[in-house]
């Protein structure tokens, strides 16, 4: 879905219905198009997860750039927690 609707200004999001549509059929089409775009945005979990992970990567890199010692400590802490969880699961599975 592109933003090629001639009645929709460029700065209006895809999920918004433009003002000033007087034709009821055209208004219904615009509302349906906006509703479908909103469903696509909300329901596309892989895209949402990808965007969230990209934001997390950018934030982690910025943190590592600002505070390399803190980033190293965070990595060591996460590794210790994951290692501990693996150890607990492996021990529970072996009994």
- H and E string: HHH
Beta-strand percentage?
under 5%
What is the CA–CA distance across the termini? 55 Å
The parts where pLDDT drops under 50 for at least 5 residues are none
Mean pLDDT: 86
Given helix and strand content, the structural type is: mainly alpha
**Gross morphology:** elongated
Counting DSSP H or I runs of 4 or more residues, the number of helices is 3
Largest sheet: none
Q: Please count the beta strands (DSSP E, at least 2 residues each).
A: 0
Helix content: over 70%
Computed Rg: 24 Å
Which helices and strands, and how do they pair?
Layout: H1 24-43, H2 45-66, H3 68-94
Helix pairs in contact: 2-3
Structure description:
The chain is mainly alpha-helical and 95 residues long. It has a domain at 46-94. It has three helices and no strands. The longest helix is centred in the C-terminal third of the chain and has 27 residues, at 68-94. Keywords: Membrane, Transmembrane, Transmembrane helix. The chain crosses the membrane at residues 69-90.
Using brief descriptors, characterize the structure shown:
mainly alpha; 3 helices; DUF3618 domain-containing protein; transmembrane helix; membrane; transmembrane
């Amino acid at each position: 879905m592109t933003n090629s609707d001639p009645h929709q200004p460029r700065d209006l999001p895809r999920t918004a219905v433009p003002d000033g549509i007087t034709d009821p059929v055209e208004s219904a089409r615009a509302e349906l198009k906006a509703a479908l775009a909103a469903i696509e945005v909300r329901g596309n979990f892989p895209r949402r997860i990808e965007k969230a992970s990209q934001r997390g990567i950018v934030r982690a890199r910025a943190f590592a750039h600002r505070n390399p010692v803190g980033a190293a400590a965070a990595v060591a802490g996460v590794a210790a927690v994951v290692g501990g969880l693996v150890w607990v699961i492996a021990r529970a599975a072996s009994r």
